[in-house]
Design goal:
By secondary structure, this protein is mainly α. It has helices spanning about 1-20, 30-50, 50-65, 70-90, 100, 115, 120-135, 145-190, 195-250, 255-265, 275-285. Helix 3 crosses helix 8, helix 4 runs antiparallel to helix 10 (about 255-265) and helix 9 packs antiparallel against helix 10 (about 255-265).
Length: about 290
C-alpha cells in the first residue's frame, strides 16, 4: 500500500508541475511510445533472465506492492514457535519432534502459528534443518555449515530478480531515446507538412525520452530498491531461525537459544529482551 501511495505522489508531482506550467495532459498520451519502450524492456528481461528468475521477479514486484510479509508480529510468532519446539524437545527428547516436522500441517504446535505454517519456504527451512539432527545423520558441529550453505543459496535467489530489475531500470532511458529517434524519423517523413503536424510529432518523440527516464527513475529503480529491502527482511528472518537452531543444537537452553536468535535481529524488527520474556511466558502458561 505504501508503494502505491509513493507512485501516486510521483505521478501527481509530475503531472501537477506540467499542468501548472501550462501543459495539457493530452500532449503526454502517446500509446505508440509506451508500446515501444514497454515492449523493448519486456523483451530484454526475457532475453537476460531464466524462467525461474522472471517468475520470482514478478512475484517480487507484487510483494513490493503488498509490502514485506516479515513484520515484527511475524518475528514474534516465529520466536514463540521455535521456543515451543525447543522446550518440547528438551523435556521429552528430540524424537518427539519427528511427527511435528514430518507433517507440520497436522502439528499442534505449527497450527498455532498460521502465518508461519502458510509460508512454504520458512516451513521447509525449519523442517529441513531439524530433521537431520533428530535422525542423527549429522552432528551438532555440522549444523552451522549446512544452514549457512542454504542461507547463501536463498540470498543468491533474492539477488537475481533484483539484479534483473535494476538492469532494466538502467536500460529504460536508452529505450526512451530509441523511441524518440523513431519519432524524429517519422517527423522527417512529414517535414513538408503543416507546422502543427510537425510540432505534434516532435512532441511525441520527446515524450518517448520523457517516458523512458520517468519509468526508470520514478518506478522501476524504486521497485528494485524496495525488493532489496524486502529481501533483507527475508534474510533477517531466516538468519534468526538459523541462529536459534544452531544455539539449540549446541546444547543451549531453549530460552538462551531464542535469546541468541533475538540478538541477531536488528532495526525495527528487533524485540526487546523484556518483551521477549513476556512472549516466552505466554508460551509457558499455555
Amino acid at each position: 500500500m505504501v508503494t502505491i501511495v509513493g507512485f501516486i505522489v510521483v505521478i501527481g508531482a509530475i503531472l501537477g508541475g506540467f499542468t501548472m506550467a501550462g501543459g495539457h495532459i493530452g500532449a503526454l498520451i502517446h500509446p505508440s511510445e509506451i508500446v515501444t519502450i514497454g515492449g523493448a524492456a519486456l523483451g530484454s528481461m526475457i532475453v537476460m533472465s531464466p524462467k525461474k528468475v522472471l517468475i520470482d521477479m514478478f512475484k517480487g514486484i507484487v510483494q513490493c506492492i503488498k509490502g514485506s510479509p516479515y513484520s515484527k508480529a511475524n518475528f514474534q510468532d516465529m520466536f514463540k514457535m521455535m521456543y515451543e519446539l525447543f522446550r518440547l524437545a528438551r523435556r521429552e527428547g528430540l524424537i518427539v519432534l519427528e511427527p511435528h516436522l514430518s507433517t507440520p500441517k497436522e502439528s499442534a504446535i505449527f497450527t498455532k502459528y498460521p502465518k508461519i505454517l502458510g509460508d512454504h519456504h520458512v516451513l521447509e527451512f525449519i523442517c529441513n534443518a531439524l530433521t537431520p539432527v533428530i535422525d542423527g545423520t549429522i552432528k551438532s558441529e555440522q549444523v552451522p555449515g549446512m544452514l549457512n550453505t542454504e542461507l547463501h543459496l536463498i540470498a543468491e535467489e533474492h539477488h537475481a530478480p533484483q539484479g534483473v530489475l535494476t538492469k532494466v531500470a538502467d536500460a529504460l532511458p536508452g529505450f526512451g531515446i530509441v523511441a524518440a529517434v523513431l519519432g524524429i524519423v517519422i517527423t522527417m517523413e512529414a517535414i513538408s507538412g503543416p507546422v502543427e503536424e510537425i510540432g505534434e510529432k516532435v512532441g511525441a518523440a520527446l515524450v518517448g525520452t520523457f517516458m523512458g527516464i520517468l519509468l526508470s527513475y520514478g518506478f522501476v529503480a524504486p521497485l528494485a530498491t524496495k525488493m532489496e529491502f524486502i529481501g533483507a527482511d527475508h534474510m533477517a528472518f531466516f538468519n534468526a531461525i538459523s541462529s536459534a537452531i544452531q544455539g539449540f543444537t549446541n546444547d543451549l537452553a531453549p530460552k538462551e537459544a531464542i535469546e541468541q536468535a533475538r540478538r541477531s535481529v536488528g532495526g525495527e524488527m528487533r524485540i526487546s529482551r523484556e518483551h521477549m520474556d513476556e512472549l516466552l511466558k505466554e508460551v509457558d502458561k499455555a
